[in-house]
Amino acid sequence: MPKIEIRPAVVDDMSRISQMDHDFKTSYVWQMDVITDEGQTGVSFREVRLPRPVKVEFPRLPDQVRLDWPERLSVLVGLFEGELVGYIAISERIAPTTAWITDLAVDPELRRQGIGSALVLAAQEWTVQRRLRRVVLEMQSKNIPAVHLAKKLGYEFCGYNDRYYENQDIAVFFGLSLR
Hints:
The structure is a single chain. The model has no long low-confidence stretch (mean pLDDT 91). This protein is globular. It has a 7-stranded mixed β-sheet with strand order 1-4-5-6-7-9-8, sandwiched between helices. The protein has a two-stranded antiparallel ribbon with strand order 2-3. Helices cover 20% and strands 45% of the residues. By secondary structure, the protein is α+β, with helices and mostly antiparallel strands. It has a single domain (5-177), classed as Aminopeptidase.
């Protein structure tokens, strides 16, 4: 894993964050199945291999992080050899004492080298320092790399919201209690 410095974002970081490639390719998705039977409804998710890799676009405008920055609890950036190579955005949602991670991105050339994990762990530390008790990771159901990252770090599936994003994608949520 490359040596990463993590620090709070500053105004000058916002243009670099907006320019980052947030998209990714995947050969798998988390498919949602809804089963309705005589007054009962069940929902399950399963990992499904696609017939060919597809490009998955970031569900928000890349510039949205810059626009939302003043309303975030925090935005942390990861630096490698002095260059910004990733970031994580932390918001506060309806759930009390919960930090909500809405955005996590790493430069495509440096993905799968532990930078995303380092940013999530730094966000957890930030959460504990503020006496919040829980972290929730939000992601598209198509974002299998994020699903695997969440599970690897001990997060558990805790819900979903159909047509959550402007592009009508499903959001899935993974949570971790820190106390």
